[in-house]
Write a structure and sequence with these properties.
The complex is a heterodimer of chains A (181) and B (118). Chain A has seven helices and three strands; from the N terminus they run αααααβββαα. Chain A is mainly alpha-helical and 181 residues long. Chain A folds into two domains: 7-74, no CATH class; 83-158. With 118 residues, chain B is α+β, with helices and mostly antiparallel strands. A three-stranded antiparallel sheet of chain B has the order 1-3-2. Classes of the chains: A mainly alpha (181), B alpha+beta (118).
């Protein structure tokens, strides 16, 4: 042990441990903490021995290492991608809801722009079957609106797409294998 | 640094090597890597060994204990369990049987040209 570990080395080691930890999100919390501690400890020992640069180089790519750890924890069978599923659902909801809100807003603006003193009820149907109509009630240019929610069919499509993106059907085969054991 | 072995060949016997080394002396991850280097496997790196130890632990073939260290956080020392010793015994027998068969074929002289098939 003849290499001194500087603050910069410690930071590089922490960065590497953090990068690995981020890729181990689906490990049970206990395993994740244990892995983090063990890798950090081994890296520190290696850094004292051969220097931080060499120690980090020998540890290898964090993506590959995380894949090895996940495989060690869960076995080699295909697993669901929970993060991809969650990301798809949240991002998809956010983007489409924003777009459709803007479109509905533009429709409402259009009513008032066409007739500043308009009075009556106007509907924007959005995406047929997937979205409830947005109803604008306009009185002397002042407007209020209701509707625009996703229909049950839209939610079924959202859920099906989320299952496809995250390959969530794999949960069933993993459970079956556990029961067989 | 030239490779001392085919990684695919080693992958199948790495767990046996780890069990054997740990049966001789309990060690922590980095120490195991150093011991592998000492026996000549100089291009087996930490990124291969640490997950292999985790796998052995998950399979119940090794058990681990934390021991305080002067050089930073506590070290995780591994040693084989009863199941690990069983796996080592049967795995070693399988490996040696395979090596004997493979050796008997590979020890033959390499012909300059294969015999033509009829």
């Amino acid at each position: 042990m003849d290499h001194s570990v500087t603050l910069r080395d410690r930071l590089r080691i922490e960065r590497s441990v953090w990068a690995l930890d981020q890729r181990l999100y689906d490990l049970p919390r206990r395993s994740r903490i244990a892995t983090r501690r063990e890798v950090r400890q081994n890296l520190l020992t290696a850094a004292h021995d051969v220097g931080a640069t060499e120690a980090l180089h020998h540890l290898g790519n964090s993506r590959q290492l995380a894949a090895e750890y996940r495989s060690a924890e869960f076995g080699d069978q295909a697993r669901p991608a929970w993060m991809a599923a969650a990301l798809f659902l949240l991002t998809g909801q956010l983007v489409l809801t924003s777009l459709l809100s803007e479109a509905a807003q533009a429709f409402g603006d259009g009513i008032v722009a066409a007739s500043p003193n308009a009075t009556g009820t106007f509907s924007w149907h959005g995406i047929p079957y997937l979205q409830d109509a947005v109803r604008y009630t306009v009185s002397n240019g002042e407007r209020t609106s209701v509707g625009g929610a996703w229909t049950p069919l839209a939610w079924i499509i959202w859920i099906a797409a989320t299952i496809l993106v995250g390959r969530l059907w794999r949960v069933v085969s993993i459970r079956r294998r556990r029961e067989v054991r | 640094m030239p490779s001392t072995h085919d990684p695919q060949l080693l992958k199948g016997v790495l767990s046996l090597l780890l069990l054997q080394l740990l049966s001789e002396r309990e060690s922590y991850g980095y120490e195991v890597v150093q011991r592998l280097h000492e026996i000549g496997l100089i291009d087996v790196f930490e990124g291969t060994v640490y997950p292999a130890l985790t796998r052995l632990e998950r399979e119940g073939r090794v058990t681990a204990r934390l021991a305080t260290s002067n050089a930073g956080p506590a070290r995780k020392y591994y040693r084989p369990t009863a199941a690990g010793y069983e796996a080592l015994t049967s795995g070693t027998a399988s490996w040696l049987a395979l090596v004997a068969i493979v050796d008997s074929v590979l020890d033959r002289p390499i012909p300059t040209e294969p015999i033509k098939g009829s």
